[in-house]
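Hello again, I could really use a second opinion on something today. I've been staring at a protein lately and its backbone has me curious. Please have a think about how the structure follows from the sequence. I owe you a coffee for this, so here goes:
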Amino acid sequence: MERNYHQGNGMNIDSATIEKNVTCMVEKNRLSHHDSQKKFEIRCPRGTRDYGPHDMALREHVLNVVTECFKRHGAVTIDTPVFELRDILMGKYGEEGGKLVPFARYLAMNKTVMYLKRYHIGKVYRRDNPSRGRFREFYQCDFDIAGTYDPMIPEAELLRIINEILIALDIGSFEVKVNHRLLLDGMFAVCGVPKKDFKTVCSSIDKLDKLPWEDVRNELCVEKHIQCGVVSRLETYIQHNSSLTNLDLLKWFEDDESASKNSDIQRAISEMRQLLDYCELFGVLPTVVIEPSLARGLDYYTGAIFEVTLTDSSKKIQKENGDVSEIQGLNIGSVAGGGRYDNLVSMFLPKHKVPCVGISIGIERLFTIMKEKAKMEFVRSKNTQVLVASAQKKLVKERMKICRMLWDSNIKAEMILKANPKMLDQMQYCEEHKIPLAIIVGERELEEGILKLRDVPSRTEQDIPREHLVEELNRRLKVLE
């Protein structure tokens, strides 16, 4: 085949190549023109968000509090894939149950593991409509106890754990709502709810924390076609006087003519009495509220059910100038939930039963509260303890030597990464990032074998012999802890 060539600037150019390049240029120009007509929006995918340095510092603080508490209670950590086989995950358990599936699958695959306290902290994903404090990508903090133990002892420890975490985070008052799967089953049975309608009735009753009873009644009678007489009987069991104590409420169920004859209700009452006793011993009883309308997780929960909500997230914060400001409470729903799920493992292996109880903490929702609080308080994004500064030019190598000495001594130190930074800029950097101490080296300090140690908040300075610097820094940092 004959090829045509064009000669120019000493180069032979294939005419086919020229034609191809011209075509590409025309197409590129067309696409460029098309793209210029279309507005390009730079944003995160819906239901996700970025975290800057201050956000990450706050997040790290929250996760450290949670992790330390989990370890304090003897838990070990395991890690499972962020995705599971479709056949394992799909269809059976709903969104909340889906979070339990990886751990249940792990236990089913590791048959020798019969007793385990485990925690897991990591990102999980859901296909959902995002809302305030609710995202498609989010961190989940789980604590589960697997194994056969005496009733309600593991449950009581879980309630102690969530109390410790929320008190340590200081986000305001909260309550731990408690119900029992058998109490729900028993109430529905004595009220005449058909078994096939248990789940749909549950989904309506569970809205009582957001809707008045009249709206829930209308949904049950009109939309879900539950007999109005049945709904009226349900009301007597679910809508109780809020002044009743936990023990008064349990006694009401014990004394009720219909409830007293139902074995499920009586077993639930007995176990919840036991739980209240253990919660008192663990010092968490004041936060526990028996709530018969807490109705979720019928696909997997078999015993106690928990939900933790903030009752008042308003906090008074003293700012650095001495003023007191208040953060208004945020309506972000529950911050933790869980319960007993004894049958989930046996769904994978029918002959392998491992009773489990667990609680999941919605870190994103806690983070929303903590972020509001952080607007009134300064949260350090850096852990730097010492800035190594210079008072004159051409001292970058001296600063590097001092940094090396401090790093070798496990002191968190840094320097401005410029050869000749201005002294004012270095001190402003300290104040901006709340770095408490600065070491200043200059020509005089080099001649005399000393270093100037500056207390940044008070702006006081002291000359320290170079060989005693690490010792003096450790002493001061210990006081600052």
Observations:
- The two ends are 83 Å apart (CA to CA).
- The chain is about 45% helix and 20% strand.
- The longest strand covers residues 116-125.
